[in-house]
Amino acid sequence: MAKTELPVVSGPRDSQPVDILIIANEHSGDEQAARLISKLKGQHPGLNIAAMGGEHLHNAGAHLIFNPLDHAVVGLIEVLKHIDYFKSLIQQTVDWVKTHKPRIVCFIDAPSFNLRIAERLYKAGIARKAGGEIPLVYYISPQIWAWKAKRRFKMARFLDSLATIFPFEPDYYKDTDLPVQFVGHPFVEPEYTSILSYDHDAPLLILPGSRRTPIQRILPNLLGAYELLLKDFPDLPATIVYPSDKIKTLLESILADKGLGEKISLISNDTQVSARAVMMSSGTMSLDCALAGIPGLIAYKASYWTYFIATKIIGIKDLGIANIILKEPIHPEFLQFEMNPDKLSAQMKKVLTQPEYIEKTHFLRDRLIEMLKQPNDLSASNWLYSELQKTQSK
Could you tell me the residue ranges of all domains in the chain? Predict the structure, then answer.
């Protein structure tokens, strides 16, 4: 086995004190953090911001001390193979904070990694809640309402403040002393531009997800439904959005096996896409589809035990985040054994032929946007700057 190449975390670019250290360990966190930093630096251009993140944070004006996205590892086995890498990265991050003393550390999402660093900073006596000088704050709450609810007590022990992007999330922390504020969802901010839009004359959109195993489990059922729809709508084109070249290759293989390579177009997720309806897996893009007003359905199938634990023990009823927020289905969900081509195609036939489905989707879309808007003037950037200002009065 090849020796694991350990990370090297660099120092700040100059001698100016670091105001904020951003830690974003995933692609989605890098994008969300970049939007936050762009707005913050627009309001306060003199801030010196360092970051553990990727290209989006760099382009937003943060100085990268390390890019974990270049070394992304997915899956339990791969994580175990690179355990020395993660241990080194966590230790170097703690040493960096100890040496360079940023005024505040802001974690972005990715709780499995970020809460380990927060705990180490606490145990090292660096964190303010451990008697140190540096407050630890967190943007984008872990989904404790769906999984690992007890994390909230660990977060309350280590963190000084949390900003959430869903309006119902602060209630889940009421039994802790952690200050939690809803700051609005970035998808409804004026600066955000979605790649998705509704168009009655556009193709059917198929979104099987971004990870290999769920795609292999879900896409054949979506394609089976599409084949049944072609019997009633022989001229109905379809589009699949892919996130990476590796996933594109997988999609091409599945489409070739089904003989649908000529019928369905593959489009990168950095391209604008219009759709008249959608069949999709649950995930971030399901919220984007809801906010774009695209009618359709959610289909998902997990392993038996994952589904059993989620539904019977934890009590999860809905997977689509828009359905959870609205407390009614903007996109009906077909899960486990309900996810079969016959049921999916029957629902989609209604969506494609009955105008009330479009009307209801657009009505719920407007309601969802209002629910996700930032409250008053409390944006994510205002929240972070307010937390930064508190360091001057301590």
Answer: 20-184+374-390, 196-372
